[in-house]
Structures are given as structure tokens and as C-alpha cells.
Amino acid sequence: MKVAEMMSSPIPHQQTIAAVATAVAPGQGGIAVVRLSGPAAEVVGRSVVSIPGQQLWVSHRVLYGHVMDESGKERIDEVLVLLMKGPRSFTGEDVVEIHCHGGLMAVQRVLERVLAQPHVRRALPGEFSQRAVLNGRLDLTQAEAISELVAARSRRAAQLAMTGVDGGIQRRITSLRERLLDQLSELEARVDFEEDLPPLDGAELLVELQCVRRELEQLVEDAKRGDVLRQGLQVALVGRPNVGKSSLLNRLSRRERAIVTDLPGTTRDVLESEIVLEGVPITLVDTAGIRATKDALEQLGIDRSHQALAAADVVFLVFDLSLGWTAEDAALLAQIPDDVPRLLVGNKADAQPASMAASRGNQVDGKTVDVILSALTGQGEEALIEAVLKTCGASEAQGLVVALNQRQQDLAAAAAIALARTQEAAEQKLPWDFWTIDLRQAISSLGEITGEEITEAVLDRIFSRFCIGK
Ligand SMILES: Nc1nc2c(ncn2[C@@H]2O[C@H](COP(=O)(O)OP(=O)(O)OP(=O)(O)O)[C@@H](O)[C@H]2O)c(=O)[nH]1
Ligand SMILES: [Mg+2]
After folding, report:
1. 27 lies in which domain range?
2. What is the distance between the alpha carbons of residues 144 and 465, in angstroms, rounded to a whole number?
């Protein structure tokens, strides 16, 4: 069923939903917002908030008052209330926002008070956004982009999400889909009235289909580069004990996150630090130095190092230049799974005579090293940053304007594959019917991206990944 049909079916949402729309944390936040949406929103607002004086419940006006307890005697919180009558609201339904004080207690008590009213239930994850989509206030890609904006961990990721919020994804996909629809109507006319129409130029039609296909492939490729901005990278710092992994983590984090000593085996557990490099959110994972040990505790730490290594998007294999490239370093390198990008990082360059480091270039004991640096002085840090961004393809993500999320990528790729099949149909000179099957499939995949052709079950699945209150 199409969204438009769902919208015209008898009012799907009789129930009024409520949730805290802001982040909830003890001791945090000046204000917190309880949001209600649905036919009972205003009635519930009026019954839980007592408004002094002559203030009227007019749409889009802020009122001042108190949320009272059941007995009407105790004030639970001092609040501002905002009524937004549908359709001029986020969901398109009547919405009431109660702006409470932040933290945990006041807002929880206000929510409980609201939920105790008739015809109100707790909102499911993403349910406000889902209603906004069903009521035509937002399109599906915009709703997804809002969720990505909220989740963004870097400025660049946020900018990319904003393109989607502004409708950039919707416009791109809709225009490609319309081009396919044009071709489909041409084809269908031939299937039905072959003899009445001038013969169809299959070559021309094919050119147009393959042109759309290439644009889709390009979108998917760009999106892959955008993934790194959206999801960020897990970078594991791995190496033998005492090579300076923790020192490097501290330098990149700009703080003394990890304990550094000159004793090998200082780090015993994995330790994370969040940083942003050129817009890419990066989780640095410091690990215990890997060596053969009889110390059971150290061994537990080393086991975790191996796990961190296996889970990383990029591994920095750090070694000590003053000791050179050793057999142990080579053994560690061999343990990094082949498909995990890695950088060989020679640390403690400052401990080397300058002439020696320079004359060797990036060769150490015959091994080509990606970056030579000093965690102590910071020399080589920029080269390291450049190298890691290059390794993960982030340097190419800088110019991106539109980036599909995973769901949209999968559908765009499916559409491109279906269009590739029309090429085969043409080569094999198959009848027009074969073309229409693939073309319809491509159109339907694109319609699933924009929400024009989507089932309610798929919508439920998409929105269930949102958080509560969204
Ligand atoms: N000269 C010099 N010393 C360094 C450099 N980086 C780290 N060190 C020193 O090397 C020693 C070990 O540093 P850590 O950062 O604790 O090494 P690690 O790899 O985390 O060691 P483990 O946690 O034991 O595996 C400390 O004394 C650091 O001060 C560097 O670039 N130059
Ligand atoms: Mg350490």
C-alpha cells in the first residue's frame, strides 16, 4: 500500500501518544520537553497543567503554569505549555509540548501524570516521526535524515544530514524515478498497442535507462564514502609493550587519557577516546601491549587487544624506531586480518639521530613504514592524520553533498541491478515485456526509498530504529 493510501484510509491513529522528547539524564539539562500528539493532546494538556490568570489555550501560543499532582494540591513542576493544533504541527496532529525543568525527576513525574490520563499511551520509538510521514508533514528520507542529524558525531556528518532534511535525497531519487516512469509508460503503450504506434526506438530507451543506472551507481558510491562521516571509524592502536601506544592516544586526544609509564605492560585493559579528525568521528582504542606473558592478568588484557584488533576499521601497528622493526613486530603484523586496513607507525622518531631518520626515508630495517612520528614531540602527527583519512577514504568524502543511508543504498543498488538487466534483455533481443518487469522493479525500489511505494510493515521497521520521543 502506498503512503498516500494509508493516509486516506480511516484515521489510522486515534490514540494519543506521549514521551519525553529531550535527552534524559540526572542532573543534566535546563529544560526537558514532554511531547503529546493525537486527538486527546489538548484535553490532556488542559487537565494536567493549571494555568493562572487570563491566559487562553490558543494554538501556537506559549502559556505559563504548573503541572499539578492527581489531588490538585501539590505542584509537580513549573512549566511552559505550547499547543500546536494540527495540521500545523510536527506530526500533523494536535501536539502539546510541556516544557519542564531538566534532569530526571520533574520530567518523569510530569510524563507519568500525562500517561495516567485517559486515551494516552507511551509513544513507541520513532512514532512521532512516523505519524509526521503518514500525515504528509515529512517525507520518509527527511524523517531518516532528522534521525541522522540527531545522531551526528561531527560537524561534517551534521551538514550531510541537513541535505536530507532539506529534501535533497527526495528530490534526487524522485527525479530519477520519474525518468524511469516516463520510459515505462512508453514501453507499456507498445505492449498494449504495438500496431497503432510508430515503432519504438529501443536503443534510445536503453541509453536513458543506463544513464539513470549510472547516476544510481554514483549515488551508492558517494554514499559509501559518506558512511565514514556518519558512522565514524574505530581505530585500534596495537603493538608490543612500551612502544608508545598510550602516548599516541593521549597526543591525538589532546589530554592525558591513558596512563603512560616507562614500564612495559602499563595498559591492562582496552581504553577508548573519542576524537574528530577533519570531520570524521574516530574512536581511538588503546590496547595492552602484546607479548608472551605468564601474568594471568596481563594475558586477559592481551586477549582483549586481539578482540579490539579484529573489530577495528583501521589498525595502527605501532613500533619503536629506537629498537627497529623486530621479529615480534612482524609476527603482530601477520595477525592483522588481511581485509583490515593498517598503518605501520614508527614511533619515538625523536630518539633517533636526525640524520639517520632522514636518510632512510620511510624504510626501517628494509620494511616500508607508513608514518614516522614522535608521540613525545608531535613530529609526524599531521602525516599520520592524513594517512588515516586516506586509508579509510575520508579524504574523498569532503566534497560530498548527498549521502544515502544504508537502507537507501541497498535499494538504489537493487534498482541499478534491475536496470542492468534491461541491457541484457536488449542484447538478447527479448520482447518488451521483459524490459517492463525489470523497469517496474527499479521504479518500485526507488519508490521504497522515497516512501511512495512502501508497506506499513517496512515503515514500522524503519521507525523502530529511531529513539523514543522522536
Ligand atoms: N622518546 C620518546 N619516548 C616515548 C615516545 N612515545 C612514548 N615514549 C615513552 O615510552 C614509554 C612507554 O610509553 P607508553 O605510551 O606507555 O607505551 P605503550 O605502548 O602504551 O606501553 P604498554 O601500555 O605497556 O603496552 C614511556 O616512558 C613514554 O614516555 C616518543 O615518541 N619518544
Ligand atoms: Mg599503554
Report:
1. 3-138
2. 10
